[in-house]
Design a protein that fits this description.
The chain is 88% helix and 0% strand. It has six helices and no strands. The chain is elongated, with a radius of gyration of 36 Å. 2% of the residues are buried.
Amino acid sequence: MMTNAKLIEETFKSAKALNEFVLTLMSPKTYFRELEDKEIEDFYINSTKFFFELNKAYWGFVFELTQALAKGEGEEVVKVVNKAMDRFETAYAEYMNNAVVSAIINSINSAYLRSLASIQNFTSAFLHAMGMVSKKDVIALSEAYVDLKGDIKKESRKIREEIRILREELEKLRAGGSNVG
């Protein structure tokens, strides 16, 4: 009898631990600690609303499309499709206006950019190992060329200005006689 009670107790403890683990995985607070409880609550409300709006828009589209096809008018079918697209776009736009969705998209974007940078670094290292030039090298070289070209133009302007000043002084000296000072 004692072992059965212990078994049941351990089963409940395991189920509770598993439940807490699943809830932790599902909670946006696990991943986005900076969000407020109200924002997370809005996310769940908007997600549920979005699901039902999409469902309603889909079945409305199916019903209206069936009627339009039964009429056999092409313009009516186009109107139904446009109306359905408007419904989907409106539901999507309303759903996307949410802090949790924005945080999820930002996280995906960050992960994408990090992975892209890693792939570019790996490709550059691989090409260098093979004695080839990478895109990164070409970009760095073109930036250096633009910088050098700008520096040359700047120095050319300075030299031209110095030559202009020297010419003016030379003209003054020629005009003033032989008073070299």
